[in-house]
Amino acid sequence: MANAPSSPHYRYLLRLADNALVLGHRLTEWSSRTPTLEEDIALSNIALDLMGQARLLYSHAFTIGGDGRDEDHLAFLRDTHEFLNVQLVELPNGDFAASMARQLCYSAFAVPLWEALARSKDSELAGIAGKAGKECAYHLRHSSEWVIRLGDGTAESHRRMQGAIDEIWMFTGEMFEADDTDCAMIAAGIATDASKLLPIWSKTVDDTLAEATLKRPADGWMISGGRQGTHSEHLGHMLAQMQFLQRAYPGAIW
Amino acid sequence: MSTASVISRPMSADPLARALAVIETVADPELPFLTIGEMGILRDVRLAGDALEVVITPTYSGCPAMDIIAVDITTALAKTGFGSVRVTRALSPAWTTDWLSPAARDKLRANGIAPPERPQGKRALFAATEVACPTCSSRSTERVSEFGSTPCKAHYRCLACRESFQYFKCI
User: Is B55 in the A-facing interface, judged by CB distances under 8 Å?
Assistant: First the structure.
């Protein structure tokens, strides 16, 4: 089966890959800036896992027949509107609490997502998911431990951690959406219905917040559009830095 | 499951057996005292037309050692006369620390790295893992960080002998 660049299968893979790449790049921005050396190594390790997942997914998208853009092209030469990640992962790092809130919200989603995709009819995707799920389980434990430590810590760390959760909440709804692309892939047995992951995600996040003595914000209006290519201004700034070298020196290798 | 049972050893194809003997001794660049055979990274060796195809699997998605391992395999084979070699990657089944051979576990310990403890079921990841100190064997140890110098290791400290050490994470 030939897959046009806009085929649901191709778009679905790019969405998964873009989530991993954008969040992975955000985490690399913490390198040499974290509170402790151990944490520096931890965030670099998590970033490396995410970059690895992105690379496997881009390569697979290239193989099923996009328009000939390889993994490097997809990462370094697409513009903002062509990225299909949820807006949650492109949010700036903020303080450490903001980054851990973002990491918890994504990891609590990624673990059941990969677990479900390990049964995908796309066997390559299932293989990638099998690896990614194991990795994200470690990421989830790491971020939930920090949220608990900061939430149930000093008055200042509690205030900041609650603030970070409150700020990020409206970006969490997008992960559970399903548009035509998702529905086509769910029907084909390639994708999983993300809306079914919401109760699992909620339980993980609620349990963590309860232990952290933090309040779950009320569900209100949710940001949407990242998965269709609409992004916050933050992504453009991030890409400007991430893609600079390939833009300035096309085809540069080392 | 040991690596020996994963790789089929054809009885008749001599070049294949010779190639396998060479490949099995390629060292892991980040754990140079272990071979990729002992690590369970080497999954298959087969003839594809005139070329030799070597199948390896990554320990972690982003493991930077994979590219070096592929180069090392090609170089080792070239030295023994295998010119046409293709190294491919298989993701499924996903690599697990269960594939570390018993010899590999002993070598890890001898090199100051605690080998992975057997998982107690699927949710074991979220339970506290008891890790024995590779220096003094005390089980009174504490985790410093889940993430260590490579994707596959965590950082621990022994409360008995005070030595800090690396733990090969169970995955």
Answer: no
- Assess if residue B55 is contained within a domain: yes
- Termini Cα distance of chain B: 14
Give the Cα separation of B93 and B57 in Å (integer). 9
Question: B144 CB near a chain A CB, below 8 Å?
Answer: yes
CB A27 within 8 A of CB A92: no
Phi, psi of B12, rounded to the nearest 5 degrees: -90, -35
Residue with tokens 């590219």: B67
In the prediction, which pLDDT does B63 show? 83
**pLDDT, tens digit, for every residue of B102-121?**
889 999 999 999 998 875 54
Nearest to B147 by CA among B128, B123, B166: B166
Structural domain total, chain B? 2
Of the candidates B145, B116, B85, B96, the one whose C-alpha atom is nearest the C-alpha of residue A38 is B145
**Given B97, B130, B147, which residue is the final one in a domain?**
B97
State how beta strands B85-89 and B51-56 pair. Answer: parallel
What is the CATH number that goes with domain A8-248? Answer: 1.20.1260.10
Q: B64 — contact with chain A (CB < 8 Å)?
A: yes
Range of the domain at B85: 3-97
| ipTM field | 0.77
Cα(A77)–Cα(A75) distance, integer angstroms? 6
Tell which of B43, B57, B61 to mutate to test the A interface (max A CBs under 10 Å).
B61
pTM of the model: 0.89
Torsion over CA: B87, B91, B93, B94 (sign): positive
Same domain as B121, residue B74: no
For residues B82 and B126, state if they share a domain: no
Specify the pLDDT at position B151: 83
Q: Could you say which DSSP state residue A16 is in?
A: H
Choice among A93-107, A233-247, B108-122 with the minimum mean pLDDT: B108-122
Average pLDDT along chain B: 84
Does residue B44 sit in the same domain as residue B77? yes
* d(C-alpha A77, C-alpha A22), whole Å: 14
Residue type, B35: T
Domain boundaries, chain A: 8-248
Is B93 inside a domain boundary? yes
Q: Which CATH number is B44's domain given?
A: 3.30.300.130
B119–chain A Cβ distance below 8 A for any pair:
no
**Measured between alpha carbons, how far is A226 from B154 in angstroms, rounded to an integer?**
35
Nearest to A38 among B62, B95, B155 (CB): B155
Place of tokens 């050692």: B65
